[in-house]
Specification:
Blueprint: E1 2-4, H1 15-21, E2 28-29, H2 45-59, E3 66-70, H3 72-81, E4 90-94, H4 100-104, H5 118-125, H6 128-142, H7 149-158, H8 161-173, E5 187-192, H9 198-208, E6 216-220, H10 227-230, H11 232-242
Parallel strand pairs: 1-2, 1-3, 3-4, 4-5, 5-6
Helix pairs in contact: 1-11, 6-7
Length: 243
């Protein structure tokens, strides 16, 4: 089982899941470049992360692996599954979409997403105090479990600033909505219902995944983005069922 964390997070995000899965499964837990204590790399960040994961899988002869990916990690799992020689057993996508940009950017057009823009420059220049205030707000919005807000914030603040800016630009630019039609690996999606409510979330997921055949989806009720923090028992139960 390969466990991919979300943007800014370290592999520690999967701690409780790994504790359970490692009883019966071989777990490979990733922390990507620029996050936690892992040194940053030059852009294009996301394409290099994908290539690095593929190299790791090949070198370790990890055939028929299951990918469990949260957020960015789930999108990366879909991207890997699109390759012609993708030999994964299953992809479990935890609150992730084929196109984050289409969700976040009004009138989204992948071609218009570039590294050099005023917003990115503002983030690069932002003073530590302002960046921390932004990180606090983001952490508070991404989990209903208040005890985990400090940890999420810590991960954001520890992230290499250029990776934070340009890596997220890579994620926004990546649009897999059409190309997921080529995926033949079974895909299970676990989607959080908060803060938008189940009806709105269903609408988003149905629209974004309409070109993917035969996926299954389960909704984590009463959970925001970090399902592993908000509904940990439900998440482990569902993952065990899927495996």
């Amino acid at each position: 089982v390969l466990l991919f964390p979300g943007f800014t997070c370290t592999g520690e995000v999967w701690k409780d899941v790994v504790e359970e899965l490692s009883k019966t499964k071989e777990c490979h837990i990733f922390t990507f470049a620029g996050f936690g204590d892992v040194p940053a790399i030059e852009k294009p960040w996301l394409a290099k992360i994908k290539a690095g994961v593929k190299t790791y899988i090949a070198e370790n002869k990890l055939e028929k692996a299951v990918i469990i990916g949260h957020s960015l990690g789930g999108t990366l799992g879909l991207w890997l599954a699109m390759d012609n020689n993708a030999a994964f057993d299953k992809i479990i996508v935890v609150d992730a979409l084929p196109s984050t940009g289409a969700l976040m950017v009004p009138n989204f057009d992948s071609e218009t997403i570039v590294y050099d823009n005023p917003y990115n420059q503002q983030l690069l220049d932002m003073e530590a105090k302002s960046f921390e205030a932004m990180a606090t707000q983001m952490a508070n919005n991404m989990s209903l479990n208040k005890e985990k807000h400090a940890l999420i914030k810590k991960w954001i603040l520890k992230t290499d600033r250029e990776t934070y800016v340009y890596g997220y630009t890579d994620l926004l630019k990546l649009d897999l909505r059409a190309s997921i039609a080529t995926i033949s690996v079974p895909v299970t999606i676990l989607a959080a219902t908060e803060p938008y409510g189940e009806d709105a979330v269903k609408k988003t997921y149905i629209e974004q995944y309409k070109n993917l055949e035969g996926y299954s989806i389960k909704y984590a009720k009463g959970s925001a983005h970090f399902i592993m923090f908000d509904q940990p028992e439900w998440l482990i139960k569902v993952i065990n069922e899927e495996l």
